[in-house]
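Aim 2 progress. For Magnesium transporter MgtE, the working sequence is reproduced below.
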Amino acid sequence: MDMSKVIEQMVESKDVKRIRELFNQNYPIDIALGLEEVTDEVLKNFMYTISNTRLASILEVSDPELQIRMLEKLPFRRVGLLFQQMSNDDVVDILGNLPIGIRKKYLNMMKGSSQDEIQTMLKYPQDSAGGIMTTEFISVKEHLTVEETLTKLREISPNTEVIHTIFVTTFQNQLIGWIDIRDLFTNELDVSLHDLMHTNIISVVPEEDQEEVARLSSKYDLSVVPVVSTKGVLIGIITIDDIVHVLQEEHHEDMLLISGVEGTERIGGPFIESIKKRTPWLLINLITAFMASAVVGMFQSTIEQVVVLAVAMPIITGMGGNSASQTLALAIQEIALGQLSLEKDKKYVWNEIVLGCMNGLITGVVAALALYIPYQNFYLSIIVVLAMAMNLMVGAIFGFFVPLVLKAMKLDPAISSTIFVTTATDVLGFFFFLGIAQVFLPLLI
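Predicted structure tokens for this construct:
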């Protein structure tokens, strides 16, 4: 079913009943995806036929571009009502994508503690723990009993995102422990939370990078991560849905950065912006291509005397790049999981070198046999095996160290690592192959 077509037909027929039934048969995210494809006029008419509660459920799961389109077509007063239906962290995500002037107008519409909390959260970078946390959580004091805690949960749980994990604090709101809601139902009503709580707390400060939050969640199998101030005061939590979103976002960003494309760019995005984001890395790639070409030029006379060398050259460099990409992908993944660092894990480079050498010998022998059949040149085959083994070793070394060095320089390990690594395998691959060929030149002619 094409959701956009369904929405267009419902709006054109002005069948309000069918539009409302749409929500009973579909999830808000599916409707949001359909709305991305409709015209502004259809979008506007659709929004005016549904309640604030249902519109808020769509707004909070929509793509940032659709969110902006929706807000532009709604009066400020209704936007304020929609924000009241949403959790503070979702409101912060939306406001963070708006121009400062528009953002201030929406903030001025809000009142009380909600406005203060949202303003505080907006101060943190969007990719930090403070930027993705929610301030709607359950915390109780350590002196309460199980019975008193259950009574309090009934009162405040409708206004919180997570009720399965309850955080225990002091009278100064300092985080000292946590309780699983199941613990409340499996203990006597007069048991104190102080005696019941778990004290093995994994928490983060609001300035912590979201990628580190995701790593901690994965390592310790956490469905919620508390955010505390430098004094240990509980100020928010990061829920599993936001953690999953971070993992998806970081994976998507890394895949793009490896190829020299910014994580914020999309197919069909602004033309000029795409040029600005892609061209610098392509120019760097062009420079590295000239470097490889310069190496080939150094051995021009050798190639002229043995033209068949030109047939094998792309095989050597291509295989070196592929080998390097394998090591690079594994290294970036291990770094993202916090399991690989330049200081502690240099020993693993020897494993990659040996692996690269073995793979080079295996693939080199296969390539040598394939080239021997048409050209009947034994020494050409020997050169291919040697150059392949050397270049795959180089690929393994650079694939291992480039992301680690970038990490040590406080840069994202995925930042165009492929460009640097393939430059090394191209330049050194040509050098090894043509250099060895020049040594064997009398035997090749």
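The chain has three domains: 3-122, 137-259, 271-443. This observation will guide construct design in the next reporting period.
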